[in-house]
Amino acid sequence: MSDWCLLSSACVPLDTYWLKPCIGTKSVRMTECGADFLHLDVMDRHSVPNIMFGHPMVECLRNCVGVCVCFLPDMHVTVLGPEQWVKPMAGANQYTFHPEATTNAGNLIKEIKESGMKVGLAIKPGTTVEELAPWAGQINMALVMTVEPGFGGQKFMEDMMPKAVCFRSQFPSLDIVDGGVGPSAIH
């Protein structure tokens, strides 16, 4: 097992109107403090009961930060019909979606790659590793969620770790854990 990991910092604004003027500054600061990339949660209030980071906010962030080597966002889209969000999010480093939200994950993976982004697939706590396995050879990241999608600040679900371990053993380059990860959960 590897001793290294990538660290991403999630941008979870409590009030996007307050955050908008300083989001670029905060994003650059996160990368200066050691984040390898930024994880932006995009929610549409249909797939989960919350709204966060639509493409106008992403465009604002791009404009604030500019073309910066440190700005490598992973767009984690928890939306219905993730196909409609690919083009507006083009320019991000990676587009991560939930396979349950689309009728044709294969076509969506192809479209994401054609838009110049890496592909991530996210699995909710109730989704099995087997449901993601058919796509493992076509993606860059498997996002094993350790909280229920939709809200920040949830407690890390340790019972999801066997799923991450299973992914790590079957697909060594595709594992990542999302949600509730802090100093007490890292060991």
Descriptive account of the structure:
Its EC number is 5.1.3.1. InterPro entries: Aldolase_TIM, Ribul_P_3_epim-like, RibuloseP-bd_barrel. By secondary structure, the protein is α/β, with parallel strands linked by helices. The chain has one domain (8-178): Aldolase class I (TIM Barrel, Alpha-Beta Barrel). It contains 7 helices and 8 strands. Strands 1, 2, 3, 4, 5, 6, 7 and 8 form an 8-stranded mixed β-sheet that branches. Helix 7 (161-170) links the parallel strand 7 and strand 8 (175-178). Helix 2 crosses helix 3 (55-65). The relative contact order is 0.12. Residues 4-9, 13-18 and 179-187 have low confidence and may be disordered.
Write the layout of secondary structure elements.
Layout: E1 8-11, H1 16-19, H2 23-32, E2 37-44, E3 51-52, H3 55-65, E4 73-78, H4 86-89, E5 94-97, H5 105-114, E6 118-123, H6 129-132, E7 141-145, H7 161-170, E8 175-178
Parallel strand pairs: 1-2, 2-4, 4-5, 5-6, 6-7, 7-8
Antiparallel strand pairs: 2-3
Helix pairs in contact: 2-3
Per CATH, the class reads: Alpha Beta
At CATH's second level, what is the architecture? Alpha-Beta Barrel
> What value does the Rg take, in angstroms?
16 Å
Number of helices: 7
Family: Belongs to the ribulose-phosphate 3-epimerase family.
Protein name: ribulose-phosphate 3-epimerase
EC number: 5.1.3.1
Cofactor: Zn(2+); Mn(2+); Fe(2+); Co(2+)
